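User: I'll paste a sequence; please echo it back and then give the predicted structure.

Assistant: Echoing your sequence first, then the prediction.
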Amino acid sequence: MPENDSIKPGYFQRTEHSAAEPEKIAKNAPKRGHKPPTKKQTPIPSGQLQKILAAAIILCLGLIGSIIFILTRDTMPPVIQKVSLSDITEASTTITWQTDKPATSQVAIWDSEVSTSTELDEALVTNHSAPLTDLKPNTRYQLTLISRDKGGNEARLEIELTTPTQPSATPPVISVGPEMGKLAPDFTLTTLKGEQISLSQFRGKIVMVNFWQSTCSNCGEEMPYLQAIYNKWPHDKLEILAVSVGEKAAFVQSFVETRGLTFPALLDSDEAVSEIYQISRFPTTFFVNADGIIKEIKTGAFTSQSEIEAILKSF
């Protein structure tokens, strides 16, 4: 037919299948009512399952316990209060304080040079006390009170302490008398030059008070030793007072000039001073230290210069 001539070749094409394709299609088509095979699962043994459940329960309980511990744990440090210092001296004091719950006790101490602390008292108490010793007088200290509760929470409080100045020692009461260890009785006598000399004006020096008479041979024999000492020792360290007992000035003057004595010769004409010093033998010499205390008494004459120096060097 002419109309068929207008149809282009290849517009309709017949599909040809080989004889093997129907068989292939038939094989690939799933069979009706047949399920694909599934992988077989192995059941967990009951004993192992119990262990897993027990471990899970323990883990949960531990987690719950940790949460409870965190929520209920005391994280507040103790409160330090009512601090006081007592028995304060230049070298020691006692510090006390309180805490609102039981805690340990310790005090850190430091000044501008040294840092130290008291021993830790691990007893958990609310009333605390710590003695502080070996302090220095007139020193400013920084003190830190330290208390820890049973949970390890720590509280600190800083205070200052200034120790008092060390009190001056009260000088002992010394009686006056012509015996060793006592305060030498003061006196005032006149020299050959008419000057008034008192024993007390030589405080700060060693003073040798020598009681003598011109008629005493032993007195004359020891005078050269006294003069040698007077020449040798500095006058700001030592003074020699030669007290003539019961004699007139003319006899004393002759005695002094004959022997070339240059230390002061004092006139106890009425023997008032020798009576106070209870002189019973000539010569007698009192060694008085710089504080006015009698340290040595020599009855009789010195036999050498070295004997005198030995006594002076013992001061």
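The mean pLDDT is 87. The two ends are 169 Å apart (CA to CA).
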